[in-house]
Design a protein that fits this description.
The structure is a homodimer.
Chain A: E1 5-12, E2 17-24, E3 29-33, H1 40-49, E4 53-58, H2 70-77, E5 80-84, E6 94-96, E7 101-104, E8 107-113, E9 122-126, E10 129-133, H3 151-161, E11 170-173, E12 183-184, H4 185-191, H5 201-209, H6 219-227, E13 240-243, E14 246-249, H7 251-256, E15 262-265, H8 269-272, E16 283-284, H9 289-296, E17 304-307, H10 312-323, E18 329-332, H11 335-341
Chain lengths: 353, 353
């Protein structure tokens, strides 16, 4: 890279995570790859100290071991957040595809889809360097046993895509646990005990299937948070959690807080008064254009619970609200089926709504 | 640097220490700066993997927070150990001076004496990079309150020597506690809160005098060990320690192990039978040419205790033996004075020796 290219590798010790800052000294535009939520102040201070203006925050993937700083940094800088389109997530601004190019200043990052550790893992390549996230680590690679991981896909990603880069390409990984800071494609072809050229796909899968790793300490917290770009999960009245990446609340909790929290029933009007009934004071607003319009009139700071028959449509409603910028919206887990199972009181206005 | 220049930055998490490997792809010669004893296997494996041959291990200074791997690596690779001549230490092979040049392959490292954190701190400069040890840290600097530290000297070292390097020179420090991996002379001139150009020497000293830092956890172990190039401190029979960097044993301990350990009395022959007497079976070999010759005939694996009147000459004897490669030699603390104070038995051969 030329002398105007700014590059800083940054380390977070607790989870051994690397963050990378790339910048253009001339135009001052910058990109941050894989920032960690605990290190936001350090990273933004460095960007400020260097006189840079952050254009993009790119995550290589939805992390399971730490919370991304992307959402928080977007809030504080107006940078756009980029993540793989493969996740079909609401929070990123850019849904990145294999081969896509990302410009900042006079430089271009090329997106390489390298699934296997997760379904949406991306590597970012720029001028003789490649940021491989957890697809390719120094003398290792990311695990493939959760988040739609696949040893076969990872093998193909590394062998067909990363190993087709020039041997001298510098590999900057998402983590290193032994204190290495970089490697190269050539070195990994030769020295990576899992992925070196002499190993077959079968040998690789055999190794990966026998790793017997325990789950990352923070996975229960990190994955759902990262599906919202790591934004701090807010709830004031309800005790909430995450199910399948959607903020969720139990029927029991909603029941004890009835009257203090807004409930929107997103079923059809015919269902609202059927045998399952509806929750007292629940407002009917059917999923679709009606709900869409309804939410545009709602204060985004309000705490809202969505309910439907089983929790599926209300999950979609929750996601729709998150996309609109609501931060305290929740899916009632199990819907009216669960509500009735627990024998909580229901209403049926025979006049309809 | 050209494309044959090999460079790896390595991190040790517990003490946040950086080690640097520099190599020549063409001649395979390599230099390691500031290796940490716990990471020897990682570092030597990397050197082997890269097909390099280690020529020098250079320490920037006598570390107080971790034990150097220099002695251990010298044993395993025959590399030469370099350290500042200012320490007047026995263990290094190279006693480095300001301005000295160190060659490996087609590259040359320039030695810059940058005292202040300790009296013998060196920085190593090569092709647009400078390895600053603890003289200049990223947005900080090493403390100056022990190991002959001096805020005034550190200020001069950084301002007159390091800051006279080109602004774009990359600064690779001995430590970083926030996860930064590098800086530049230009950035530190502007951003270093202690040493930036707008600060006066008085302001700097004021800051340094008010740091109120606690001592490094490992200082009692690290400094003495590092005075022996970090060699694991060996003793089989005795319970030993370090005083002023010299392996030392108490009179009490020697007394309980009499008959199991060799004792050499390094006083003059006239003192051997004076009022203080000598320890039973202690062998008389006066400090000087006589002892020098005597040690050449001794097995270097033997455990030997040196004794004199007060412990001063026997300290010199211990150092002489360490220089000769003995690893289990000790100074009897307090000498015959202490021995008599404790009323341990003495002998006096009236016939002389």
């Amino acid at each position: 890279m030329d002398k105007n290219f700014i590059f800083h590798q940054l380390f977070e010790k607790e989870t051994s995570t690397y963050t990378y800052l790339l910048g253009d000294q001339k135009t001052k535009e910058a990109v941050l790859i894989d920032p960690v939520v605990e290190m936001v102040d350090r990273d933004l201070k460095l960007i400020e100290d260097l006189g840079l203006k952050l254009k993009y925050v790119l995550d290589t993937h939805v992390h399971a071991d730490h919370i991304t700083a992307s959402g928080e940094i977007r809030k504080r800088t107006n940078a756009k957040v980029g993540l793989s389109s493969a996740y079909d997530m609401a929070c990123p601004d850019l849904h990145l595809e294999d081969g896509q190019e990302i410009q900042f200043g006079n430089y271009t990052i090329k997106v390489i889809h390298t699934p296997g550790h997760t379904s949406g893992c991306l590597s970012y390549s720029i001028g003789g360097m490649v940021f491989t996230g957890d697809a390719l680590l120094i003398r290792g690679c990311g695990r493939t046993d959760f988040q739609e991981g696949s040893s076969e896909r990872l093998f193909q990603s590394v062998r067909d895509k990363l190993f087709s880069l020039a041997d001298e390409t510098i590999v900057y990984p998402g983590h290193d646990y032994k204190g290495f800071t970089k490697s190269s494609i050539g070195l990994e072809k030769k020295l990576n005990p899992r992925l070196k050229l002499e190993n077959s796909k079968e040998q690789f899968c055999e190794i990966m299937n026998n790793l017997k790793l325990s789950y990352p300490k923070k996975i229960q917290e990190a994955v759902p948070a990262n599906l919202l770009c790591g934004l701090p999960f807010k709830s004031e009245i309800l005790n909430t959690g995450f199910v399948d990446g959607i903020p969720t609340v139990t029927a029991e909790d909603v029941y004890t807080k009835l009257g203090h929290v807004k409930v929107i029933d997103v079923r059809g009007s015919d269902e609202y008064n059927n045998e399952l009934g509806h929750i007292q004071n629940a407002e009917l607003s059917t999923l679709g254009p009606k709900l869409d319009k309804r939410l545009d009139g709602e204060d985004k700071n309000n705490e809202v619970v969505f309910v439907c028959r089983s929790g599926k449509r209300s999950g979609e409603a929750t996601r729709m609200a998150l996309n609109k910028g609501f931060e305290k919206v929740y899916n009632l887990q199990g819907g009216m089926l669960r509500w009735n199972e627990l024998h909580f009181p229901i209403e049926r206005d025979m006049g309809g709504s």
